[in-house]
Amino acid sequence: MENCLFCQIAAGQIPAAKVYEDDQVLAFLDISQTTKGHMLLIPKKHVRNVLEMDGELAQTVFARLPKLARALQQATKASGMNIINNNEEIAGQTVFHAHIHLIPRYGLDDGLQIHFTAHEPDGSALSRLAEQISSEVRK
Ligand code: AMP
Ligand code: ZN
């Protein structure tokens, strides 16, 4: 897609520190290096985010993850890794070409902070919501 940064990187029109490439996907180092080795995995085909992926493209992209994650872990000797995907602006997406972040972790103050706020669960509301989502999945 014209004017898409990651399409341009996939096409080799903009330089990137490439890690892995085949005919379907590209992995390269994120320019922000939130932690050392922060890497992105993208499909070469332009889709906005995971919400726009079909199962086949998701299978192609996600199948590449474990090997890349292990390679990144080995190369950086990180203690662990967060694998993150942001969908839409409210979720922190800034580049609207689907991508998965692989962020090696070295310590609690290494540059990435994730905080899950727990809310008191309402059992019947949870069941209703689960049923609602379940019926959407079956459509
Ligand atoms: P997100 O905020 O989830 O959309 O992530 C977009 C990511 O793309 C950010 O972490 C940016 O640092 C990264 N990024 C932006 N421009 C480039 C670039 N030219 N090369 C590599 N990574 C980039
Ligand atoms: Zn694109």
Helix/strand-derived category reads alpha+beta
Q: What is the number of strand segments?
A: 5
Average of per-residue pLDDT values: 97
Bound molecules: adenosine monophosphate, zinc ion
Number of domains in the coordinates? 1
User: Which superfamily, in CATH terms, is the homologous superfamily?
Assistant: HIT-like
Termini separation: 30 Å
Trace the largest sheet across and list its strands: 1-2-3-5-4
What is the number of helical segments per DSSP (H or I, 4+ residues)?
4
Which percent range fits the helix content? Answer: 25-40%
Tell me about the largest β-sheet. 5 strands, antiparallel
CATH topology: HIT family, subunit A
Query: Could you tell me the radius of gyration in angstroms?
Result: 17 Å
GO molecular function, one term: catalytic activity
Pfam families: HIT
Protein name: HIT family protein
GO biological process, one term: nucleotide metabolic process
